[in-house]
Write the structure tokens for this entry.
Amino acid sequence: MRKSVFLFPCFICLSVFAQQEPNLTQYKTTNEKLKVWLAYANELIDLEDYSKLLIVSQKGIALSKKHPVYLSRFYLYKGTAYEFSNNQYEKALINYEESRKYAQKANNLINETSALMRLNYIYYSLQDTAKSKALAVYIKTILDTTKSNYTKAVLNGSLAEYYQNNSQFENFISYQLKAIRYKKLLEKNDRNDENIGVSYSQIAGAYLKMKQFNKVIEYLDYAKPYIKNSPYVTAFLYNYYIQCYVLLNKPDQVRKYYNLVYKLPSKKDSLFLNLSFANRSMSEQYIKEGKINIAYNYAKKAVLLGQKSTDEEILMEANTVMGRVLYEQGDYKKAIETLILASKNALKYDKEFYVIINKKLSESYAALGLWQKAYKYNKIYSKTNDEMLQESAKQSIANAEARYQNKTKGQAIKNLSAQNTIKTIQIEEAKKQRIFLISGLVLIGIIVLLLFKQNQNRKKTNQKLRVLNQELDEANKIKARFFSILNHDLRSPISNLIHFLHLQKENPELIDEATAQRMQTKVITGAENLLSSMEDILLWSKSQMENFKPQSHPFPVAILFEEIQKHFASVENIEILFKSHENIILNTDANYLKTIIRNLTGNAIKVLDKTSNGKITWKAWQESNQTYLSITDNGPGGTKEQFKALYDDSEVIGIKSGLGLHLVRDLATAIDCKIEVNSIPNFGTTFTLIF
């Protein structure tokens, strides 16, 4: 798939909406007309409207007769139109050469760079080895003299492609890395990060040819961040991953990237091309797994999508894998038909595929007993395969010789340089030692000072962090407490309201008119009391959010009991009594105390859930300069272990309604209140609060 990947970097740009053809009669000077017309041609390139681009470029050439810079550009665009319209390479070549000529005449390096880039590909496509080689030499002379990072970026990439076309992968990688380096040096407005990603993916493709699969994955990973905004190039990248993981026999990774290709949005033609590529690779994976019928389904998809893509190379590759599948299925006649169809363009695009095709043709004819034809294709296979091996061997020898010569020359240069350097070093050694000594002492002093300063800053920073962490921890504890309080204190009243509403909705016949009136009155009263309690709790919560500390004020116990009675007014089947014979006033935080009493009352109600004639009694009295509040229920009682949270700070016991005795313990401690509990099995439990 070399063609599609190599063409893409040339004209990566943003999609725009087409504008109407400009009316040149509105512009007075030729320069104004040419400027507008060139902008219109650029839009057509963005839109890939090559048939219209051909007409517009021809008109631009006619307008530019005395303007070589514009002539160069319009000839370049005309060549582009031919190249990308059904691969009309001969016509494209004529226009690219004209573009180069006028760029040189105008001494315009940017236009010449663009023309040279396209000529490099066209000479390769037309198999004009002599011109291709001469062009590479000329490009090197430009690179030796130019200071333009843009030209260095583009032409190093062209040289890389030249060496890849000649299977000189080491040189290809070297020049491609240079191209990437210069692309990264370009100004942001001139740089296209997608081109950098494409270059990395091309290097990955070279390593794929050399079967260095870890390097393939490495460079594909380098490419990913640069092409994340281009579905078209991302699809090619994913297909490289698929190819690599097929060869590494990692089916899970193959299927992962296959699915990713299908999720990418893409233009119609590139969609077919990429999907054909992906399905071909999937077919190869299932051939390796021996699942030939599944491999056939993917090969069939690859061929159909290849036909829709109208790309000769991708269709050739799809037919090749289909031929292999048919051979494995034993359908040798269809395999031969498919492989012969694939062989028409195989040598033109990829010699490795040509070798595979002829090998499978030979094996297919042999399976049918047609030995003469089997011998014919085996002979072609052997000859082509030997040529590839010889080319590879020659290239390996050439690379080895080049490395040896470079190493030898480098060593000689080093030796001469060393001899000259020794004398200079001996003269300057004394001066340098003195300078180094002074510089070293100064540097040590600076380092010590910096380390001291850094240590001081670190201590200050750590102290600030400790304070902030303590504040954050305290804030989290406060938030947890308030949520627990809200959950516990509001759940029970709301539950009672919901119970009555369900009863009224689902079994209205069980409630007579008098009972319904009484319960409705009770529900309304309970809802009003609930609203009052919610407002009370929320206002207290708001005042305490920043600093959860008690605020003591004188507070009558009678008012406390009255509010608690209203809060639990909706409780059915349990009698709640409040006894306070004296006008007792407590100097404490009323909200803390309310929360404790609501909690203990709610727990008692829960305990009496299954007790008939349930009864809860709150008492208040004073004795020996101490104030006592107690709650007693006639429930089943409990064990000492169940009340452990009241005395053990490390114990946290929750209840279903959301709050445990640990919060009663914490709030009581905060207001200097002591809690005692006396529980008798089958008789009940008494909690006593001592102030």
User: Anything to note?
Assistant: The CA atoms of residues 272 and 309 lie 5 Å apart.
